[in-house]
Amino acid sequence: MMKEIRVQFETLDPYKEIDTLRADNKAIGAVVNFIGLMRDFNEGDSVSQMSLEHYPGMTEKALEKIVDEASQRWELLGVRVIHRVGDLDPLDPIVLVAVASAHRGEAFKACEFIIDFLKTRAPFWKKETTADGSRWVDARHTDDEAEARWQS
Amino acid sequence: MMKEIRVQFETLDPYKEIDTLRADNKAIGAVVNFIGLMRDFNEGDSVSQMSLEHYPGMTEKALEKIVDEASQRWELLGVRVIHRVGDLDPLDPIVLVAVASAHRGEAFKACEFIIDFLKTRAPFWKKETTADGSRWVDARHTDDEAEARWQS
Amino acid sequence: MIKVLYFARLREELKTESEELALDASTADIIALKLKLSARGDIWSDIFAGDETVMAALNQEVAKPDDKLKDGDEVAFFPPVTGG
Amino acid sequence: MIKVLYFARLREELKTESEELALDASTADIIALKLKLSARGDIWSDIFAGDETVMAALNQEVAKPDDKLKDGDEVAFFPPVTGG
Q1: Is residue C51 less than 8 Å (CB to CB) from chain B?
Q2: d(Cα B122, Cα A102) in Å, to the nearest integer?
């Protein structure tokens, strides 16, 4: 299985990544991808900028583990997980999870599994800038629930 | 909600479609895309070419209905469903289902719902060319099962 | 008159893309129409009275067997769909 | 010696990115280390003995409170993650 996991300061081009995932593999019948984007609104406030911090080393390990778990659960032909760090503006892609497989069911499940676990297990932290200054984003309870679904 | 449903003979550029879906809407936090691609292998045989027929008029009505049902079930900010007809080669995109929403859970569910119903409700028929000549593709039992999941 | 369309494998096997039929008792509803078509014999009977699943649409929406037909209706017959 | 890292809100509030500590009874496991840090008072006690959730990692994997520490280990403390 083709696997790429990357954390980068550079702008994330989701289409280039999906194209690389698909390239020349005529066995791929389905690609499901999740693109997480910076919104200009959170918790009732306008957000003008965002900064993403991570724990280098642990991040990559955590993502590897999540992707490996997904590729054990489902038959996959390729996975790419690319995550931005540093400063972001509204509309910027934050994360891409792209999964290729022969049939769609596996690709959908694996893609959602990976982003659900990334949200609760990968050491990234968002800080957003509002009119009142900057603030750390709080973890969402709904993310824990999303992860818990996969335990059954 | 921005909605676009199209059946086309021209090559499908999934990235242009996703870009149009995202354009300038800073409220979009999640985009989930399904890209269905032509494989070079089906039912144990090598497939060199494919031709897609549809029922003009009914196709668009069926897709509209599926997308409307999805946008009633989940809070969506945009949906694009673009389907190829005519002659396709391996690696060609057959269909794109792109769904934008504020948060990912809704986008994942709506995207999978739309492709599951498209597979069983939209009047498209695939004919594939193998070494033994051309043959109509049989409907998959697994597609009926995929649709049935949404009844509960 | 009603218009009847055939798609995909059916269109090829029946060598017919579309036809117009008079509206009478033999075309009163979808099931009557199927009987009428199967009565043509040969491949028509194989398809409309055989084991293969034939889907029907009435005015571009999925039809039920007992859907009544009226003047100007468009009926279509086709195999299970395989797009996407 | 062990290395201790702080991330995000913790790094800012503690005004500390990393530090090295001697390995002894007060740093025998994660829970002992948290007690030692909270004993520094002020913001340290607010964070390590307060209500906020503090996550711990040992050698870049999620740690349990009773995980033992050994020479050369890297411990990290951080708030619940919010990426993606």
Answers
A1: no
A2: 21
- Quick one: fold of C2-78? Ubiquitin-like (UB roll) (3.10.20)
Pairing assessment for the beta strands B45-46 and B41-42 based on DSSP bridges: antiparallel
**Residues of chain C contacting residue B115, judged by C-beta atoms under 8 Å apart:** 84
What are the φ/ψ torsions at residue D20 (nearest 5 degrees)?
-115, 140
B105: β partners: none
**Whether A114 contacts chain D with CB within 8 A:** no
Residue A108 identity (one-letter amino acid)? F
DSSP notation for A111-139: HHHHHHHHHHHS-EEEEEEETTEEEEPPP
- Inspect the interface and report whether the beta carbons of C81 and B52 lie closer than 8 Å: no
C-beta atoms of C62 and B121 within 8 A: yes
**C30-36: Cβ within 8 A, 24+ apart:** C30/C56, C30/C58, C30/C63, C30/C64, C30/C65, C30/C66, C30/C67, C30/C69, C30/C75, C31/C65, C31/C66, C33/C2, C33/C4, C33/C69, C33/C75, C34/C65, C34/C77
Q: How far apart are CA B48 and CA B45, in angstroms?
A: 10
**ipTM reported for the complex surpasses 0.90:** yes
Burial class (CB within 10 angstroms; exposed 0-12, middle 13-18, buried 19+) of A130 = middle
* Gyration radius of chain D's alpha carbons: 12
Residue where the block lists tokens 């008159």: C1
Q: Give Cα D16 distance to the centre of its chain.
A: 11
Contact B31 A35 (CB under 8 A): yes
Q: Which two tokens stand for residue A46?
A: 């306008």
Q: What is the CA radius of gyration of chain C?
A: 12
pLDDT tens for A76-134 read: 999 999 999 999 999 999 999 999 999 999 999 999 999 999 999 999 999 999 999 99
* Chain B CB within 8 Å of residue A24 CB: yes
Contacts of C8 in chain B (CB under 8 A): 53, 125, 127, 136
Q: Do A14 and B14 touch (CB under 8 A)?
A: no
| Domain limits, chain D | 2-78
Closest to D64 measured CA to CA, from D50, D75, D49: D75
Residues of chain D with pLDDT under 50: none
CB C13 within 8 A of CB C40: no
Which of B53, B83, B120 lies closest to C7 in CB terms? Answer: B53
CB–CB contact A39 B28 (8 Å): yes
Task: Calculate mean pLDDT across residues B48-67.
Answer: 98
Among candidate residues A36, D30, A21, D2, the one with its CA nearest the CA of residue B108: A36
A8 touches chain D (CB under 8 A): no
